Fold:
Amino acid sequence: MKKILIIHLGEGEMLLPVTFLDQDVEVRRVGCGGDVARARALIAEYDGAVDAIGLEGMPAVLRLGSAQVQHAIGAELPAVARVTPVVDGSGVRPELERWGVILAERAHPLIFNHKRVLFVPGVNHEGLAQALTRRSSAIRFADPQLFFGLPDAPGVGSAQTLDQAAAPTLEALKEASFETIAGITGAPHHQGSFVWADILAGNIAAIRRFAPERLDRKMVIVESASDEDIADLRERGVETLITLMPSLQGKGEIARYPAATIEALLVALRPDPQAPLTEDTYLDLLADLDWAPAVVTLQPEAAGVNKFAFVIHPLSVRFIHDYPPFYWTRYVPDTIVEAAAAYVPPIYVGKITGGRSPTTGQRIEGYLISLGATPRQMMKHSPRFTYNLLNQAAHLAERLGARIMGLGAFTSVVGDAGITVANEADIAITSGNSLTVAATLETAKIAARMMGYRDLSRGRIMVIGATGSIGSACARLAAQATKDVALVSIEPEKLIDLKRLIERETPGARVVIATHANDLAGECDLIITATSAFGQRVLDVTECKPGAIICDVARPPDINPAEAALRPDVLVIESGEVLIPGDVEIGYDIGLPPKTVYACLAETSLLAMEGRFEDYTLGRNISPERVKEIYRLFRKHGYRLAPLRSFEEYITEEQIMHKRRLAEELRADPELFARRKAEAKERLKSIPEMAKGVRAARRSKHSAAWGWAGVGAVALSLIALRRQARMQ
Structure:
């Protein structure tokens, strides 16, 4: 049986029989208490009596970045042995760190992407630094703070200054004690970078000694960890622990011993005892090793949770005023506020918790990320402007641990409806529009039954905005249900294509197309509005037939309350509102009742619940098959449509009965209907034309006093807000 000796900086002695590369090995671990003389004596005592000696925490060479230097004492220790090879882990650590990151990422895609990484320290973790630098540009090194007490100031410890700082850092450390290098000694200080970081990587002893008491939701990446280490990290709130060395307890188990033990085992088990201790020799042995790094969730509530993110944005300037950091903007001209807010980087604003499938038990957690741009600002800028913001949002989503991101409101409308963002992001992307279509049509069915339509399939359905992604899918599916649809869009050439497509898909369907809705409104039982229009009236409500239903899918809405009030017999409903199963809590006001979300958000959460981390609904050509598939998942996992609402108020049975009575009266008396319609049309003249609630920009009563001073104040606040966003 092969035998190895591991000398570590602690105390005590332990004999450990292990099986490694299918061979039994006796591992003796002996502590030297940090006493170099004891370490020398142990090396001399076991020289020739064991097949390899590993020095744990006693490096011969110090490496940082591209610099390296021999440690004054560590470099001399291997020479004490005249027969037995003496190693310190440096022969395998870099390769195993790089390999471990790859294997962990294969098992948990995107786990490292765009995370903020702090090395504690970076010395002798060059392999891990190289691997994580490929996955994140936000890298810092705590070495200046740990070893020299430098302040946690901008630039200190940054990856950009590593090349300049590495050589002098190592020169100063080459005579430092092993305890100092390992992080066993030293006083905690300057904890700002620890708060900033998502990942703490390096030495477990240094992380435990120097990190703050609370490390909630953070990830720790180290070579190995003891039971005591694990208990401490769990108590401090660390969410994920990754150990990068092969475990002697089994594949994927937490590694208890660092690289020195692994290298000593490989040295002892060389088929040719005379083979040089080079990377090639180790690689041949490692190629036969069936292993995986341990990726362990330390917090029970976080285990098995699938995570998603969803992008929102202010629908109008009012939403900007209502956001706490922006309260002061109500005293600034709206035009300035709206223009400046568009440049604010994406900000994490809240979390959705408690979602759980009653069918599979799968739990989900969502992160709400807000842009600062209103729909009007998105339309004013080029699509590339919004793409860049969404790419930043995707990076933030990955940092938070999400594997799929949904595009809310106008972010799914701009440009090519998510295709470019999906191509440029590592995270999966969906517009959520497939479920929006399904929820819209199901909501319309419910509303039709409530309004007394026994068979909507015999009626006519109008879709305004029919050439858009949601509108076209609604039109194609509506034609299958009613075979009588009216399609309205400002894009006549696309209308023709859509008409031809529907007629091919649904033989016998009657399809009427128009660029204006009003002439056809009086013939339609159900009207679906799904436009991106601003500052215009997409539908003259007074033209609707008695008891018609308007399903307003657009966000912000196409129809406003003042217009709807002109025809109290017409039911105007908000569409696509969904209840996620479970004890759901939404940690941010998205403008909906408690536990209620938009269908586009629900689709993102549903895909996470199903474990479908893939680009799902993209572009303007939504497949009816995808709509049907997402609705099957909707029912499988116990999602439900929210109760009907109209202009942010739940619709009561009394209101429905009142509308039905009015509609019956108007149907029974054409002359009465003509008079009511004429009166309503006259009153409509006093209501400004608008869509999405957008009219001429408001100027606050303080605007005259602002001028360029206001612009300057907004600019300064914008800088502060951008800094706040970067610190998230």
